[in-house]
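Deviations from the work plan: none for this task. Representative record:
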Amino acid sequence: GESVGLHLPTLSVQEGDNSIINCAYSNSASDYFIWYKQESGKGPQFIIDIRSNMDKRQGQRVTVLLNKTVKHLSLQIAATQPGDSAVYFCAENRGPTGANSKLTFGKGITLSVRP
Amino acid sequence: ETGVTQSPTHLIKTRGQQVTLRCSSQSGHNTVSWYQQALGQGPQFIFQYYREEENGRGNFPPRFSGLQFPNYSSELNVNALELDDSALYLCASSLGLADTGELFFGEGSRLTVL
């Protein structure tokens, strides 16, 4: 069936290193993808999004890459900091036009930053 | 802080009971969506309200129902609670019905059904 999923459940990185979190999606019709960060006891927080007509988008210390050929999405975090420790979710919008809230989330990956 | 507030933060119910969860959206936002997040899972879309009307629903039974009020705050009601309803219920607000755009999530209401 259709799914949005993450390859690994946990990722441990050294503070200061770059982090790469990967995500696979199966719905080739999806055209909008988002990364969220969820800290313990809080709701998901928007990080960055990308449309399917783009391959790459950069934010502050974060970059999202989209490979539509293999239906793969990745989030790169530069110079990872302790405050980046959280669960990260990729999500896609499978709703019809005007449905920005109908997101399908993956299961999440925990990023742990070692001091 | 996202400006989205939810209440209560935690509650415990027993099977068969009913529960009402509340959400105040960020100022100026007219769209509210509800998500269910089971432990260790990603959020799952329940339904969305836009200007007091339901605008889409996920794969949840009719015992999950909602309301949106003229001030755009919202309620999620769950009847005949089951053990599997135990989860974190998240409310998210946004402006309008664009294809894209940031959702602002509250911190959730943690429901435990015994």
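The CA atoms of residues 52 and 70 of chain B lie 7 Å apart.
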